[in-house]
């Protein structure tokens, strides 16, 4: 009789082996290579913080061959980056991705990596699953996944895999102040689509610096403390000293309220800003822009 | 999969390992583990467990304590061979040459902080010729003890912890050391 422990062991090793055929080593930093996942034909997804140089990137495939790769784009918000390599190097079969609701607290999970030629595995648990959240770099993540698992070389950029061999997400050690977490596969798909289309993740941009101020005992607004002279708000007629009270008729009292409204889908669309200017209520309509690269860098 | 069965499988594997794992004391403070590698007399442990001692006390799981003679050490491989007089209970079952795979469940047995026969469980992180890297939590006192697969078959001798990973000398290297 084969024991349950043996069955569990066989399942974990089989899951590691199957997904491991899509786990690559990325040489884009000094010393130890980082891990990445062949997510689609010729496209590797990894943790962007491990990509420390943007040229002369070499990827070592599971069979040991080295191939050159180019950086498609990176998104510090979600700590994801996409790399492209010749599409002939794809293993057969599609990546088996778990749906969002399959990520449950208590699930046994493997973190796979390839910090060199060999595949590595660590075993742990999903310790908690939370709501959608926004990282401190502003990225929108569809679920907060807390992990109880060891972080070893090659953790970041590798896949989080369940006992059935499904990929739950991409591991990273930087989004939760050093604690292990994973960006869910659904978020990876969304960010990857934007990276492949735009080379970055478009982020809504108004071009104003704001600070919360009290308008009366009951209400607060956001006083415009700085205006980007070439930004969308300036073009729309926003002036220094204006107090923003609403965006598209939704009251705002914290800069985070505005950020929450400025997701990728808003870029190019009009936004109506409710203002208090010189004591009078008024409104202006601005066309939401895409955050310029320099702004994005500064926020990294 | 029934988790109660899983738990009893783990304790059964631990019991089997405990029978072939010994405690090794070189003085009042030094404590390590060892594996009854083959009958009737050969016990394998780490070189750093016995140090420069010529003899040590070997405490068996059945309660007997015998004097062990350090026959040979290899500091480079961190292995030592100890022989004890008389008959013994049983020797470890070793895994055949089937290679270890990343993600495979492994068990370690040792005597951390003087606690006899403690179990640690984890998975193979990576398996090399020189070291098996295991993702499991080891402590001082596991040195010289067995690393075993899910079937309780010994695959290596736990030797040290590096970057949070347990490093074990592969069974093949132990065999080579015994042949030398």
Q: Explain this structure to me?
A:
The complex is a heterodimer of chains A (300) and B (180). Chain A starts with a helix and ends with a helix. Chain A is elongated and about 75 Å long. Chain A has five helices and 22 strands. Chain A has helices at residues 4-20, 185-198, 232-236, 255-261, 293-298; strands at 23-27, 34-40, 43-47, 57-60, 66-75, 80-84, 108-113, 120-130, 133-134, 140-141, 144-148, 159-162, 167-176, 179-184, 204-205, 208-214, 220-227, 243-247, 250-251, 270-277, 280-287, 289-290. By secondary structure, chain A is of the alpha+beta class. In chain B, strands 1-2-3-6-5-4 form a six-stranded antiparallel beta barrel. Chain B contains three helices and twelve strands. Helix content of chain B is 17%, strand content 43%. Chain B has 180 residues and is α+β, with helices and mostly antiparallel strands. Chains A and B meet through helix 1 and strand 8 of A and helix 1 and strand 8 of B.
Number of strands of chain A: 22
* Spatial arrangement of strands, main beta sheet of chain B: 1-2-3-6-5-4
Taking all Cα atoms into account, the compactness measure Rg of chain B is 15 Å
**Residue share in β-strands of chain A:** 35-45%
Give the termini separation of chain B.
Answer: 45 Å
Head-to-tail CA distance between termini of chain A: 55 Å
How big is the Rg of chain A? 22 Å
Helical percent range of chain A?
10-25%
Largest sheet of chain B: 6 strands, antiparallel, barrel
| Total number of strands of chain B | 12
Task: Label the structural class of chain B.
Answer: alpha+beta
Strand content of chain B: 35-45%
What count of helical segments of chain A does DSSP give?
5
Structural class of chain A: alpha+beta
Main sheet strand line-up of chain A: 1-2-3-6-5-4
Indicate the mean pLDDT of chain B.
92
């Amino acid at each position: 009789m084969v024991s349950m422990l043996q069955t569990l062991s066989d399942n974990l090793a089989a899951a590691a082996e199957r997904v491991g055929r899509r786990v690559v080593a990325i040489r884009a930093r000094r010393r130890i290579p980082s891990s990445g996942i062949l997510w689609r034909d010729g496209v590797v997804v990894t943790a962007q913080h491990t990509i420390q140089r943007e040229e002369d990137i070499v990827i070592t495939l599971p069979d040991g061959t080295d191939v050159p790769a180019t950086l498609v784009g990176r998104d510090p918000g979600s700590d994801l980056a996409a790399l492209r390599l010749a599409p002939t190097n794809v293993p057969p079969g599609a990546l088996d991705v778990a749906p969002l609701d399959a990520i449950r607290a208590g699930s046994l999970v493997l973190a796979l990596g390839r910090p060199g030629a060999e595949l590595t595995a660590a075993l742990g648990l999903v310790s908690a699953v939370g709501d959608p959240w926004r990282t401190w770099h502003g990225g929108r993540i569809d679920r907060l996944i807390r992990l109880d698992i060891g972080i070893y070389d090659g953790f970041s950029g590798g896949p989080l895999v369940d006992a059935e061999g499904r990929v739950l997400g991409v591991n990273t050690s930087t989004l939760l102040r050093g604690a292990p977490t994973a960006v869910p596969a659904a978020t990876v798909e969304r960010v990857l689509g934007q990276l492949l289309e735009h080379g970055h993740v478009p982020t809504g941009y108004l071009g104003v610096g704001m600070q919360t101020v009290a308008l009366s005992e009951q209400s607060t607004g956001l006083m415009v403390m700085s205006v980007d002279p070439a930004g969308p708000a300036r073009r729309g007629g926003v002036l220094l000293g204006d107090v923003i009270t609403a965006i598209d008729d939704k009251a705002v009292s914290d800069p985070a309220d505005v950020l929450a409204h400025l997701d990728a889908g808003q870029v190019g669309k009009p936004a109506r800003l409710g203002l208090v200017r010189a004591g009078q209520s008024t409104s202006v309509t601005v066309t939401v822009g895409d955050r310029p690269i320099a702004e994005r860098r500064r926020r990294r | 999969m029934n988790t109660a069965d899983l738990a009893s499988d783990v304790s059964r594997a631990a019991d089997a390992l405990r029978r072939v794992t010994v405690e090794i004391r070189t003085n009042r403070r030094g404590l390590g583990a060892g594996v009854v590698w083959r009958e009737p007399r050969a016990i394998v442990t780490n070189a750093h467990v016995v140090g420069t001692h010529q003899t040590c006390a070997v405490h068996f799981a059945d309660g007997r304590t015998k004097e062990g003679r350090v026959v040979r050490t290899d500091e480079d491989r961190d292995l030592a061979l100890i022989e004890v007089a008389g008959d013994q209970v049983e020797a470890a079952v070793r895994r055949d040459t089937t290679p270890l795979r990343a993600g495979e469940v492994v068990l370690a047995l040792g005597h951390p902080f003087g606690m006899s026969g403690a179990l640690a469980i984890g998975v193979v992180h990576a398996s090399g010729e020189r070291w098996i890297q295991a993702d499991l939590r080891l402590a001082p006192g596991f040195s010289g003890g067995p690393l075993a697969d899910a079937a309780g078959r010994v695959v290596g001798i736990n030797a040290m912890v590096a970057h949070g990973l347990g490093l074990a000398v592969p069974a093949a290297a132990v065999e080579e050391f015994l042949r030398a």
